[in-house]
Every structure is written in structure tokens, then in C-alpha cells.
Amino acid sequence: MLSPCLFERRRQPHRGQRLACRGAVNRRKHHARHVEHRHVRDARIFAGADQRFLPVGERAFARCARRRYLSLNQSLFERGRHAAIEAAERIGGRILEVGVGTGISLPDYGARNRLFGVDLSEPMLRRAQARVAELGLRNVEGLAVMDAEHLAFPDASFDVVVAQYVITTVPHPEATLDEFARVLKPGGEIILVSRVGAEAGLRRTFERSFAPMAHRLGWRTQFAWERFTRWAERTHGMRLVERRAMPPLGHFSLVRFVKSGSETARMAGRAVERTIRREARG
Q1: Most exposed residue of 103, 115, 144, 253, measured as fewest CB within 10 angstroms of its CB?
Q2: Cβ(129)–Cβ(226) below 8 Å
Q3: Protein fold of 72-281
Q4: What does the pLDDT look like over 205-224, one tens digit per residue?
């Protein structure tokens, strides 16, 4: 015998419930649109979009956001940036800066070095080009839109490859390091300033609290030191020579790799470059 409850008419929600449900759905849709708009707005602002084409409210936000960003950059990244430049200056020669951004580091290199900067963001590179022109940086050979994992340079093109706060933001860090090693001359160095995850202790607790902000900046919240050591061990001719803690609380590290090769080979490579330049001028 069938239960009579199967034949009972399903109770319909009254009009007030339907309106409340519809209101909740609309609020969720509005929130989703607001979040999407905020992310698009942030991307436009931090990608260097021309503020003249932003709505009035967003222009005010852009000015405030840029001030906050610059303040954060000065407090968190300045020491690491200067440490990377000092390490690169000790090698000298032809230097590739990957993730050059707006070119904030370019004026800090010595005039005797030749610089080339690459970045994925064309608006950022336009600002870098304006900086180069304004400051008359004649040692900057060029700036180009380029993917760090697919550099459009011949093998052994640079004495130093510098990447500040880049390697944990790319999709394939080890493949990117392979590309850095490819374009590096024998005897040259890869110099990174990078986030390195803590295994335990107070810094690990700090990193967990910092994780939401790191995620918004595009950094991996878990990037173990072993990834660097394993890459050096498996990559022929590359040797890890330094790890130095950078502020805040050692959350970032200066990391240096050396490509095996004699100083004689390196000097011979520079002599070949000088010959090519003389022939090009002649």
C-alpha cells in the first residue's frame, strides 16, 4: 500500500519567502559583480593604466593605491633590491634584469655596465622607457616585452641575470631558471631576491598570517628552499653559492647561482663582443 504522503501537494513558499529568496540571489550577484569590478580595477591601476581614462572615483583610488604600493615597496623591498644590485655590480658587464617593471632599479647600476630589461607588462615598460629617457641612462641597451620562461636571446648572452621578486610568481619556476642559465655566460651569475618558505618557528607563523596578502601580490605562499637546491643539483654547470636573509624577518632571501666556466672564457667572450661592436660601428 502506497503512503498517502506521496500524493500530498507540495507546499509552495508564500510571496514573502519568494521575495526574500530573490533578494538574496540578487545580493550575491551584485557582490560577485563588485568583486570582479574591484579586481579589474586593481589590475588596471597596478598595470599602469592611464589615469585619464579611469572614472573619477577610480582616479582617486589609483592615487591612494599607488602611494600605498610605493610605501610598501620602499619598506619591504628596498634592501633586497639594493643587495641584488650590489651583487650584480661585483660581476659587471652585460646585465639582464627580468621583471624590470617601471625601471626603478636601472638608475642604481653603474654606468660602466650595459643593461637590458624585460617584463610582461607593456604599460610598465612604457614607464621604464620614460624613466630611461628622463634620466639619460645611456647604458640601457633596451627594454622589451618578454616572457621569463621564453627569453628571445641567444645562449650565453649575459654576464649576470637579475630577477627580483619574480621567480615565485611565474607559472614554472624551474623552467624559468633553466632559461636564465641558458642565456648566462660561463662564469656568470644568476641573482635572485625571492620569497623562501620557512620550515618551522616564528617566521612560519608570520608567513601563514601574511599568506592572504602574498596571494594577492601573486606570490606562492609555500615555496620551499629545497626547490632551489634540487634545481642546482640537477642543472649541469650551475652551483648554488649564497643564500642571505632579507627583511622582513628573513621572509625573502638573496640567492646566487654561478655558472661554471673559467674567467679566461668569460674575458674571451667580452673580447668577442667588443670586436662585434667595433665592426658594427665601422
Answers
A1: 144
A2: no
A3: Rossmann fold (3.40.50)
A4: 655 666 666 556 555 556 78
